[in-house]
Write a structure and sequence with these properties.
alpha+beta; Nucleoside Triphosphate Pyrophosphohydrolase; 16% helix
């Protein structure tokens, strides 16, 4: 099974977290809800990649967010596509949510209560990834 390491970043503000709906232009899980996420590129650490994805996908820089927690990696097997994801979860507090500008990878952003993740059709195991950074 093909193995890929990815980051998933949960952006929070005022007790809510932001979910993003993946566009038709991404390679996997089109139309599903996710956090800010991306492949960990060669030569990049999970935390470096998290900052890169936040800048690319949400238009935020280091002054706009504060790292709250880095969770333990979560292994997720998707037998339908023959891939094992190793998800490195992160939780960031957003200082100025009005600065967020989503890119082409997403069609919609929504602020939700964390306990409502289960009400959305998400990428695999998003709730479990959140639980690793929730405490």
């Amino acid at each position: 099974m093909d193995e890929r390491h990815v980051v998933t970043c949960f952006l929070e503000h005022g007790g809510q977290i932001m979910l993003l709906r993946r566009s038709e232009h991404v390679g996997t899980y089109r139309g599903k809800w996710a956090g800010v996420s991306g492949y960990i590129e060669e030569g990049s650490s999970p935390s470096q990649q998290a900052w890169t994805e936040i800048e690319e996908e949400a238009g935020l820089d280091v002054d706009d967010v504060e790292l709250v927690r880095e969770g333990l990696p979560l292994e997720v097997e998707d037998t339908q596509i023959g891939r094992k994801w190793v998800v490195h979860p992160f939780r960031f507090r957003v200082q100025k949510p009005e600065k967020i500008r989503i890119d082409w990878e997403h069609t919609e952003a929504r602020w939700i209560a964390p306990e409502d993740i289960g009400r959305f059709e998400t990428v695999p195991n998003l709730r479990e990834a959140w639980q690793r950074v929730a405490v």
